[in-house]
Amino acid sequence: MLLLLLGIIVLHVAVLVLLFVSTIVSQWIVGNGHATDLWQNCSTSSSGNVHHCFSSSPNEWLQSVQATMILSIIFSVLSLFLFFCQLFTLTKGGRFYITGIFQILAGKLWMVKSVWKGPSKSAE
């Protein structure tokens, strides 16, 4: 039983690390002297040195993706916190429903970012 709980804790921490990495360092478009990610647009030289970085455009769809990623991290942190709270307060044999619901919400919000399509070129 202790091994199972340790595995769940490791899984929670791994999910948090992956969420932070995918939110902070996710480069969507790289090439032709520029790199674009969720938070900024950077122009680079041929040697790979970064010259200028600007904030990403204030598109509504991009702000929605940023918000869902932040919410995903918040729900995942809450899930880990609730897991520890429930671990010490639930009776033996109790279920971790609240923790599971928050972890599912975090996963769903992250998946929204993964499948979200930006505005098409014809709409501009």
UniProtKB/TrEMBL annotation:
Keywords: Cell membrane, Glycoprotein, Membrane, Transmembrane, Transmembrane helix, Ubl conjugation. It comes from Piliocolobus tephrosceles (Ugandan red Colobus). Might be involved in growth regulation, and in myelinization in the peripheral nervous system. It comes from the Eukaryota. Belongs to the PMP-22/EMP/MP20 family. PANTHER family: EPITHELIAL MEMBRANE PROTEIN-RELATED, PERIPHERAL MYELIN PROTEIN 22. InterPro entries: PMP-22/EMP/MP20-like, PMP22, PMP22/EMP/MP20/Claudin, PMP22_EMP_MP20. The keyword Flavoprotein does not apply. The chain crosses the membrane at residues 65-84. It is a multi-pass membrane protein. It is found in: Cell membrane; Membrane. This is Peripheral myelin protein 22. It holds the Pfam family PMP22_Claudin. The keyword Glycoprotein applies. GO terms for cellular component: plasma membrane. Its main location: membrane. Signal peptide: none annotated.
